[in-house]
Design brief:
heterotrimer; A mainly alpha (220); B alpha/beta (298); C mainly alpha (224); A: 220 residues; mainly alpha; MetI-like fold; 9 helices; C: mainly alpha; 0% strand
Chain lengths: 220, 298, 224
């Protein structure tokens, strides 16, 4: 009969909490960097010159169809073998996850751009705004409300994806589970606790997002 | 009349009783497999009669047991099995290999599916309660694989390094303490596979890969231009062959074969396998006082 | 040939040398993906029917199952099953543990997809079917299933793409799939750019085909 022993897990709880914090930080950072990539790619895809449109389309299709793990391996193991080794394991992962997120965010922002009524754009152009000014003052603010739910879902997905960082020994939550000095008999306790932490965090993020959406809707 | 009958009867019944007793003893002697076995009942005889020895081994762990391009088994465990066959039949080819996973090593012996196991089996007290181990044929440990151009010579060197060194290791329960036993200040990076732990070394992500000493030797043997052998090994563990408990004749035979391959007539065969898979040229044992009892200096 | 060699010339022999391992890994990846999709679809059918028509208790259980699976990373589930089952006494091969773990996720996704597909059918259809006397089983088979299919198929295909990508995670429990095979080859040959490109191309080929099929199916059923 399996004997539960929670001591090893709770003795090392600080390790798990630190890992959770790091995972959250990585997710937010990747979302931020990925959004920059995604915005640029979305505008390039919809309004850029043809070669740029093709390039961004290729980027999105490529990255969305290959595993995140492969991208991580390429950045962490492959790049140094090709001479590029400035990123340590943490930043290699952030970069890989940002590239991965960027592809999904491109599509989200594309939908956002398309959701902005053309009337607003035309009005702004007729006032003499340049294309860049239109983007800054009209498109982006109007897009924000449209894309917010999707951004929130992306954040939750990215948070779950941080678990793959354990493959290159980034000390996030899953790696913490691997590291805790347990023999196989403590496996059940560790993974129950870790699963509970992921669950609690995902629900918290989802709840916060719903709260933000509601408040924004009221303000508007 | 009555006396004669009773004496004859007594003799007859005693003879019958004695005969029955002898038969029972003989039967008991022939059927006792759990305790001391006579030579005729030993697995040794069974194997000799069969003409091949059935050896349990693995197939996915160089340099111990792995397949070449044609699917044939090779490796140091395989070499030892062939030594045994040579000792039995004067023919190293008379081996039948049973490929088994690591967790089948003990059960396959206990059920008699294999005669002997050569499968980089670490000797532990827990396992010794279930199987009988031979004398050691290798002493494994943790070693460090370094890049050829590394400024360090081995684990002790790395321990003295000014900057915190990064060391990769296979994920396991004792990973941190294993590395810190030799390199106290190291940052330990656990990877899911030896391939990735070594790739991290190739890509310059870590200074050293802490892996099995034998694997270090094997990788250096294969790519001496890429790697070098870290000069300090620690955390010793003994590899030995395993047989089913209770058969002292078979165990003694295997011990004799192994012993003579490391110190006697079959040393050349052992040494050539050692060089082939570990890249180390062994010095032949000194002649004169038997080396296994420790060298005496005058 | 005395032409100056192209940068690519030494590529073919390298690829050929690694080809057996790559193909082996590819086979494992495809096998795992198919097994997971099969398991997931079966679980999804049971789950969606429970969510739609089951008793409250059953619905709650499936609801919890689906929500939990949505909040845990795939890798955590794989580790939990891979290390947890032996701790409970069940020795399973790594590949089976991976298929079980991913199958549970797939089942949760599929339950939602199938449920959504069925619920999107206008209620009028069900009422009309009931009024002409069809049994529940007949309604399911002749009215619901054909209409839901059109809405379900594209989402099913998208899930398939996610599963193929997640199958790479089993390499982290020592299953030699395409990702693990590529790592071993890169370790052996140091030809990172070439072989990561090969792996990417193979995954892309599988998934892009699935995506395109999904989009075509979406267009086909859009008018429905």
């Amino acid at each position: 009969m399996y004997q539960f022993n929670w001591r090893p897990v709770f003795d090392n709880f600080d390790l798990l909490l630190k890992g959770l914090g790091l995972a959250m930080a990585i997710a937010l950072l990747s979302l931020a960097i990925g959004s920059l990539i995604g915005l640029a790619a979305a505008f390039g895809r919809t309004q850029g010159p043809h070669p740029l449109q093709w390039l961004t389309a290729a980027y999105v299709e490529l990255v969305r169809n290959i595993p995140l793990l492969l991208i991580i391996y390429f950045v962490y193991f492959g790049l140094p073998l090709l001479g590029v080794s400035m990123f340590d394991n943490l930043w290699s992962f952030v970069l890989a996850l940002a590239l991965y997120a960027g592809a999904y965010l491109t599509e989200i922002f594309r939908a956002g751009i398309a959701g902005v009524e053309k009337g607003h754009i035309d009005a702004a152009r007729s006032l003499g705004m340049t294309r860049l000014q239109v983007i800054r003052h009209v498109t982006l603010p109007l897009m924000a409300r449209i894309v917010l739910p999707s951004l929130g879902n992306t954040l939750i997905s990215l948070f779950k994806d941080t678990s793959v960082a354990s493959a290159i020994a980034v000390p996030e939550l899953t790696y913490g589970a691997i590291r805790i000095n347990v023999n196989t008999w403590r496996v059940i306790e560790v993974y129950l606790v870790v699963a509970a932490l992921y669950l609690a965090t995902c629900y918290t993020i989802a709840g916060s997002l719903r709260w933000i959406e509601r408040r924004w809707a009221i303000v508007q | 009349m009555a006396k004669q009958t009773s004496r004859r009867g007594f003799l007859r019944s005693s003879a019958l009783g004695l005969g029955a007793g002898v038969t029972v003893l003989a039967a008991a002697g022939c059927n006792s497999g759990g305790t001391a076995t006579g030579p005729s009942a030993s697995k040794l005889n069974e194997v000799l009669k069969r003409g091949t020895v059935i050896v349990g081994t693995g197939s996915t762990n160089p340099p111990w047991h792995f397949e070449d391009e044609n699917g044939n088994l090779q490796g140091f465990d395989i070499e030892m099995a062939r030594l045994l066959a040579k000792g039995l039949f004067d023919d190293p080819a008379k081996v039948q290999f049973v490929r088994q996973a690591s967790d089948a090593r003990v059960p396959n012996l206990q059920t008699g599916q294999v005669d002997v196991v050569f499968q980089f089996m670490t000797v532990t007290a827990q396992r010794a309660q279930l199987v009988a181990f031979s004398i050691p044929y290798y002493r494994e440990g943790v070693g460090t694989l370094l890049r050829r151009d590394s400024a360090h010579a081995g684990a002790l060197d790395l321990a003295k390094a000014k900057k915190k060194v990064k060391v990769s290791i296979l994920q396991n329960v004792y990973a941190e303490s294993l590395v810190h036993a030799a390199i106290p200040q190291a940052e330990v990076m656990q990877f899911d596979s030896v391939a990735n732990a070594v790739l991290a070394l190739d890509a310059g992500r870590v200074e050293a890969a802490a892996i099995d000493d034998s694997t270090v030797r094997w990788l250096v043997r294969q790519s001496p231009d890429k790697y070098k052998y870290g000069n300090y090994g620690w955390s010793p563990q003994t590899y030995a062959a395993a047989v089913r408990q209770g058969d002292t004749v078979w165990l003694n035979f295997i011990n004799t074969v192994l012993h003579e391959s490391m110190t006697g007539v079959d040393f050349d065969a052992y040494a050539s396998g050692f060089e082939k898979y570990f890249g180390v040229k062994l010095a032949p044992p000194p002649v004169g006082f038997p080396v296994e009892f420790g060298l005496r200096h005058t | 040939m005395d032409r100056a060699p192209l940068g690519n010339c030494p590529v073919m022999p390298l690829i050929l040398a690694g080809l057996p391992l790559i193909l082996q890994g590819l086979l494992v990846t495809v096998t795992i993906s198919l097994a997971v999709l099969l398991l997931g679809t079966l679980l999804g059918i049971v789950g969606s029917l429970s969510l739609l028509y089951g008793a409250n208790v059953l619905r709650w259980c499936v609801r919890i199952y689906v929500d939990v699976c949505r909040s845990i990373p795939h890798l955590v589930m794989i580790f939990a099953i891979f290390y947890g089952l032996p701790a409970l006494g069940l020795q399973v091969p790594a590949i089976v543990a991976g298929i079980l773990a991913l199958g549970l996720f797939c089942g949760a996704h599929m339950s939602e997809i199938f449920r959504g597909g069925v619920e999107s059918i206008p209620h009028g259809q069900m009422d009309a079917a009931k009024s002409i006397g069809l049994t529940f089983a007949q309604r399911l088979r002749q009215v619901i299933f054909p209409q839901a299919l059109g809405r379900i198929l594209p989402a099913w295909v998208n899930t398939a793409v996610e599963i193929v990508k997640s199958s790479s995670l089993v390499s982290l429990v020592s299953v030699v799939d395409l990702t693990m095979a590529i790592q071993q080859i890169v370790g052996r040959t140091r030809e990172a750019l070439l072989f990561y490109a090969v792996a990417a191309a193979l995954y892309f080929a599988i998934n892009f085909t699935l995506s395109i099929t999904g989009r075509r199916l979406e267009k086909k059923f859009a008018h429905g």
